[in-house]
Fold:
Amino acid sequence: LLLLLPLPQVKRLVTHRGKQDQAALSMRLDADLRSAFSWNTKQLFVFVQADYTTPENGINQVVLWDKIVERKEDAHLEIRSLRQKYAFIDQGRNLRGLPLNLTVAWNVMPKVGRLFTRSKSFAVGVLPEEYTA
Structure:
């Protein structure tokens, strides 16, 4: 199992409707999840989420991207410029200068039995101190 999620490129850090911070990220994803498949695996639900803490909320988790993988042959994800599918908006104005972790997680959906989740987190750096646009 190989996972690589280096420091993302911050495309934009702006205020959203004047009340919330919004960031747009682009990153590289290299995840070989073929070993998660067995005779009992129906599909994987793979997602990348941003994890961070703010004074208002100790735990913040925002899903940025997801994909359903139905075949073992398709479970080696090499995406050079992964752009987020979902908005990265904080509940307040807390993203500037914030340390950011990204987590790659995958739900293994079996043909028979319980679903289970595996994940790997990466400390990827600090968001810019100032708005970019």
User: Anything to note?
Assistant: The first strand starts at residue 2 and ends at 4.
